[in-house]
Specification:
55% of the residues lie in helices and 20% in strands. It is an alpha+beta fold. Among the domains are: 151 residues, PAS domain (Beta-Lactamase), CATH 3.30.450.20; 147 residues, Histidine kinase-like ATPase, C-terminal domain (Heat Shock Protein 90), CATH 3.30.565. The strands form 3 sheets. A 5-stranded antiparallel β-sheet has the order 2-1-5-4-3. A 5-stranded mixed β-sheet has the order 7-9-10-12-11. Strands 6-8 form a two-stranded antiparallel sheet. A hairpin with a 4-residue loop joins strand 1 and strand 2. Helix 1 packs antiparallel against helix 5, helix 5 runs parallel beside helix 6 and helix 8 packs antiparallel against helix 9. It is rod-shaped, with a radius of gyration of 53 Å. The two termini are 62 Å apart.
Length: 446
């Protein structure tokens, strides 16, 4: 079951905070309203009580009744009913002849008291307020609808209820927007973790285990755990590969002087027997071997790389009937630019492996020039390349991640990218003369 964090957070906030806030506000408004109504009734009763004191000072009953009527009209309004009853509850004066016929409404009148009670007259709730006048032994009665008495209070109550509803809705909206922001941020984090894992480790998502109630936090936790597991596994692979590389490196360094001495002995023997080709081969091979293992520096200069190419060409001349090596450089300062060891030799060797028959003559050409802050090295021979459609596929193979056992273009390309960045490396193309060109791009630095 999946329930987004934003809805989960919203529901929790509604239950714990917003709904209790709304209910407490409504209860408070109702309680305050009832208290104000009671206070208003008590105030009106006090006014009614003082009126009968005022009314009792008049000797003329007709005049006093008229004054009584006018005063009550000014306080309660003309829509209220006013009555004057004797102590025996006989009607002495009434503004409503109809209600005078219903004496059941006046049975609750109590002598010597000022009080009120509710009645239902013409299907409308009304409040009957009365005050007993001990001097004249009569009841002063006012009957008014609840709505007319509490009109202002009800309006205020409606305003307060509207405010409570509006504030509750506002809190709900703010809570949803905030929780949605949290949910969106977590979702972006999940996508970034997933994208990182796919980009770095090239591993698709595993199926997520179902949980009782799933959300972004749960998914983010699963994604992080899965990524950490991949990283731990990758670290184990890296440690193992590093150990194997160190072992291979140590094995390759076992007594290199033995090989130097062996090659020197072969050279001496060739000179004794006057076999110039074997002497040239052993000397060139020794120089290549010393260049590769002579020191721990990984970088050299383009000039030294060209010297190694010349040694390699001298070795290959033994097998090739006609071999010419030429390089063109537009700026001699480029000769001192840094380059990884054995960058050019594998590419030149690739020409002999794939683009040449040993019965033919061959010309190896290297062009070196500067392009803004980079150095471009083009290596090509004089044979026409016909399979132009394969160029794109070759570039894809050169850039493949799996380079185990590769010592050609792919190996050189990978080493250059690791050393100088993804913008650099090896690409292949066909130039205007339809020659197959291996192009090396390097940063210019001394």
């Amino acid at each position: 079951m999946y329930l987004s964090l934003k809805y989960k957070y919203l529901i929790l906030t509604l239950i714990v905070f917003i709904l209790p806030y709304f209910m407490m506000t409504v209860i408070y408004i109702n309680n305050v309203g009832e208290y104000q109504k009671k206070l208003l009734i008590e105030t009106r009763l006090e006014v009614l009580k003082k009126i009968h004191y005022f009314n009792s000072s008049f000797e003329n009953n007709q005049a006093s009744t008229k004054v009584y009527h006018e005063v009550l009209n000014s306080i309660w309004g003309s829509y209220s009913d006013f009555l004057l009853l004797t102590e025996q509850k006989d009607i002495r004066f009434s503004t409503n002849s109809h209600i005078s016929e219903h004496m059941e409404y006046f049975r609750k009148l109590e002598p010597q008291k000022t009080n009120y009670y509710k009645i239902d007259y013409l299907n409308v709730e009304r409040i009957l307020m009365y005050s007993f006048d001990p001097f004249n032994n009569c009841y002063y009665v006012v009957i008014a609808t609840s709505d007319s008495i509490f009109k202002e209070l009800n309006n205020k109550k409606e305003d307060l209820m509207a405010f409570a509803i509006a504030s509750t809705l506002l809190l709900t909206i703010i809570t949803f927007l905030y929780s949605n922001k949290i949910s969106t941020t977590l979702q972006m984090l999940i996508e970034r973790i997933t994208s990182y894992r796919k980009a770095v480790y090239h591993i698709e998502d595993k199926e997520k285990k179902p949980t009782w109630i799933n959300d972004e936090l749960n998914i983010a936790n699963q994604e992080l755990n899965q990524t950490i597991a991949y990283m731990v596994e990758k670290e184990k692979d890296y440690v193992r590969e590093n150990y194997e590389a160190q072992l291979n490196n140590l094995q390759s360094q076992i007594n290199p002087h033995f090989l130097y001495n062996t090659l020197d002995n072969i050279n001496q023997l060739a000179m004794i027997h006057e076999v110039e080709e074997i002497s040239t081969l052993s000397v060139g091979l020794a120089k290549l071997f010393r260049y590769n293992t002579g020191n721990s520096e990984k970088e050299t200069t383009i000039e030294k790389e060209l010297e190694i190419i010349e040694e390699y060409i001298n070795i290959m001349k033994i097998r090739v009937s006609y071999l010419v090596f030429d390089f063109q450089i537009k700026d001699n300062d480029l000769l001192q630019s840094a380059i990884l060891k054995f960058t050019l030799q594998p590419i030149v060797e690739n020409i002999f492996k794939h683009g040449y028959s040993y019965k033919e003559s061959i010309s190896i050409n290297i062009a070196i020039y500067r392009k803004k802050n980079d150095v471009v090295i083009d290596i090509y021979n004089n044979s026409e390349y016909k399979d132009i459609a394969q160029i794109a596929m070759l570039n894809e193979k050169i850039n493949e991640e799996n380079h185990e056992g590769s010592i050609g273009l792919k190996n050189v390309n990978r080493r250059l990218k690791i050393k100088y960045g993804e913008a650099y490396g090896v690409t292949v193309l066909v130039n205007e003369q339809k020659y197959f060109v291996s192009r090396i791009l390097l940063p210019y630095k001394k």
